[in-house]
């Protein structure tokens, strides 16, 4: 019975990742079965927490019957998430399948308690309306909502040494910076700003003008600046690939290629990048799977000449 319940959790979590992110779902299928199951379980919890704060379901709309513009309470949701996450980490019996899944994966891989709590701290930044004055402020946010997910995923894949976890964090940072660029205009419409305010001041773009057509060229210049920083983190993250098991390296390399292509598409479109949402096609995902395989295999035979991280913002430790 316990095995059947566990399988049900994996199936539910797999359905959530498939509906919530086709890019990550395509990459996750490349893991070995055990790692894939753990990745599904962790993703389901991360997705649920993110959606609960935003009052959405799988990032695509309001939760039916639970949330509307007036009823949604981000502060209350954050308190609920902290309580249930703490209970799961403390080993209490969990009736909610999402938190039962999280409990199972956190126990199996001995994920340090601070990491899931750091993710919730990142969501609290959105709830509190934190201001991001400098690029370091933005990177700190990116760590809390994405870099730490990279760290937890890397732990699931068997990584434990700090440098490999740093590289996994770098990939999460790169993903989130790419997300910020893709969603600059939509986020501005929702009252969220992750671009450093210093940059906007230097570019003479008013806070209420980010989504206005007359500032699109200036915003594109700032987006390219952010993508250049993302590229530094993408390059750094590649050094961790060779240290992962082959199938994990394949999955990670594929996700890295798919997401980096989103940033490249923004560059190609120029100031028109936000006229429609940038995404990758099925053909591009298939090509990424092939290229990811080549990258994973070649990493087995290459000398580890990882780029130095001296000039990169680094995740908090301890």
Give an overview of the whole structure.
- Helix 1 (2-20) packs across helix 5 (97-108), helix 2 packs antiparallel against helix 12 and helix 3 runs antiparallel to helix 7.
- The chain has helices at residues 2-20, 22-28, 33-54, 74-89, 97-108, 114-128, 135-156, 162-182, 184-189, 197-202, 216-237, 246-269, 282-299.
- It folds into two domains: 1-110, no CATH class; 131-318, Farnesyl Diphosphate Synthase (Orthogonal Bundle).
- By secondary structure, the protein is mostly helical.
Describe the SSE topology.
Layout: H1 2-20, H2 22-28, H3 33-54, H4 74-89, H5 97-108, H6 114-128, H7 135-156, H8 162-182, H9 184-189, H10 197-202, H11 216-237, H12 246-269, H13 282-299
Helix pairs in contact: 1-2, 1-3, 1-5, 2-12, 3-4, 3-5, 3-6, 3-7, 4-5, 4-6, 6-7, 7-8, 8-11, 8-12, 11-12, 12-13
Short structural summary:
With 318 residues, the chain is mainly alpha-helical. It has helices at residues 2-20, 22-28, 33-54, 74-89, 97-108, 114-128, 135-156, 162-182, 184-189, 197-202, 216-237, 246-269, 282-299.
Could you say which overall geometry the principal axes of the C-alpha atoms support? globular
Fraction in helix: 55-70%
Strand proportion, as a percent range, falls in under 5%
Could you say what the CATH architecture of the largest domain is?
A: Orthogonal Bundle
Q: Note the run of SSEs as H and E.
A: HHHHHHHHHHHHH
């Amino acid at each position: 019975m316990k095995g059947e319940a566990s399988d049900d959790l994996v199936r539910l979590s797999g359905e959530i990742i498939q509906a919530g992110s086709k890019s990550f779902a395509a990459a996750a299928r490349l893991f070995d079965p055990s790692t894939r199951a753990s990745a599904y379980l962790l993703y389901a919890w991360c997705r649920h927490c993110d959606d609960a704060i935003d009052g959405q379901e799988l990032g695509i709309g309001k939760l039916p019957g639970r949330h509307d513009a007036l009823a949604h309470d981000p502060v209350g949701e954050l308190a609920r998430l902290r309580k249930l996450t703490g209970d799961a980490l403390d080993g209490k019996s969990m009736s909610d399948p999402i938190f039962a899944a999280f409990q199972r994966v956190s126990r199996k891989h001995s994920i340090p308690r601070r990491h899931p709590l750091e993710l919730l701290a990142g969501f609290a930044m959105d709830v509190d309306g934190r201001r991001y004055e400098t690029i370091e402020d933005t990177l700190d946010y990116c760590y809390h909502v994405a870099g730490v997910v990279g760290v937890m995923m890397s732990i699931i894949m068997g990584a434990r040494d700090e440098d490999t976890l740093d590289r996994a964090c770098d990939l999460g940072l790169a993903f989130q910076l790419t997300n910020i660029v893709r969603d600059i205009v939509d986020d501005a419409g929702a009252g969220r700003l992750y671009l450093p305010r210093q940059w906007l001041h230097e570019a003479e773009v008013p806070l209420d003008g980010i989504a206005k057509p007359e500032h699109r060229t200036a915003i594109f210049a700032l987006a390219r600046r952010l993508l250049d920083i993302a590229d530094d983190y993408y390059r750094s993250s590649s050094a961790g690939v060779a240290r992962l098991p082959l199938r994990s390296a394949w999955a990670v390399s594929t996700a890295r290629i798919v997401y980096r292509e989103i940033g490249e598409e923004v560059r190609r479109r120029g100031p028109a990048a936000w006229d429609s949402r940038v995404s990758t096609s099925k053909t591009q995902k298939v090509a990424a799977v092939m290229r990811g395989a080549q990258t994973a295999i070649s990493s087995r035979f290459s000398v580890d000449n990882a780029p130095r991280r001296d000039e990169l913002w680094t995740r908090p430790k301890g």
